[in-house]
């Protein structure tokens, strides 16, 4: 099968298009020498056409240019084709230089050469520093010309391909396996052949995805993207919003496969058996006999992989316990492939799909709600069970409350949660994770997407009484009668428990409890007019709604006029300036009698005795 990439790594050298283009000269002093290797017979600046050069081996080539080993004591020879209009080989001071593509333009090294013809030269290449270089022709005076040849110099520390970094896999809904890794940078292109070890034949990964999905990682205990962008605060969708499952295969849009995000897992999240307990690694044949061998271009695969995906149709076996990947890596400096193995817990890396067909039922007209859902069909026989988490919040509220958590196996699951208030719109949501995945953070990336739904809790009688104090009333004398104004604090809307909430107030003789008058009001005060000054009264208030009158009520006792203490004498308010914008109010009065206690109220709203204290 042919391999495809979103962009060929390296550069295709269309030198014919750019040959002869003159670039500004680098800062190279006059009087440079060509630096011929051992065996030269002519001094610098003399025609190189008669120079005697020691024999050197041909330079190694791959699809991305010439390959050198950094720090090698041996030079290699390379023949380059030159445009005579831009590079004058007949000029005795013409030389060739290697220019680091990532370094300062003045960072160059001179390479000796021998003229073959006016358009061809044989270069003798050597470089001590790893990197990618362009070969320039330098006329020794004012101009350099890019020959459009690339030289890649491998690391001097290790020419061999290194193991992969940050390898991690996620099995989405136990149907699609996505693995991702990072490779160590090396100017000499190292190609990777990833294989999934299965119970049958190793399955190769093909380069079909233009870009790899993002994979969260951990930084100081908090999940972050590898590029430093903060990760989502809620669990990621296990598939792109535009993708849906059809028999376990993601739906494509615009012909491009849509792959989910594969969360990372910290080292301590799984328990791996000792290496000796793993089944013997499959015997891998020679690279040329691997199944579905990649397409080569001049002996080199045409792309470099950093992620793979398999479905059950392409070889992923969800129940196979030894989930392993085998990586064969090679580059032009190493004659043989190097093999690297990576293993994962096949159950712990499962990222379930969202709960399906979520429904709820109010239990016996209470605030208890039973939530039921279906497990994704692919997980009906999942051996590690499925952990669920249910959260809820009131409508328009920002903060979620954890309602229930537990584990379940099989097609159907349910849990019960008691909500906080009657006659309130709630949003509930449930999500799933593998029971084998130890939870490190609430949003560690290993939860499924949320499955939300809404419910309006049943109505009920009011359950709380309006708040009053011992002096929350006002007496206005109209001898021989008086008016009693009764005030209370409003019941919060969340505690109305049903529509049409009002207050039912009544006044009764305190000794006989005979009701004198009553009323239904919407506000927080009521005036009982023309009551006797010689009687003591009990003033009561209770909430009521469409379901009826509540059972909890509040009351105050107003004595007969003869039993009431005298009004405090000459009350005054003194204002103290503490700071620029801070005042202290002091209330003073003269006591009207010994043994009296006083309750002080701070009223807001209108000033004056004609208005009720709020």
From TrEMBL:
Residues 354-460, 469-563 form the Fibronectin type-III domain. SUPFAM superfamilies: Fibronectin type III (SSF49265). InterPro entries: FN3_dom (IPR003961), FN3_sf (IPR036116), Ig-like_fold (IPR013783). Keywords: Signal. The keyword Signal applies. Residues 1-27 form the signal peptide. The keyword Transmembrane does not apply. This is Fibronectin type-III domain-containing protein.
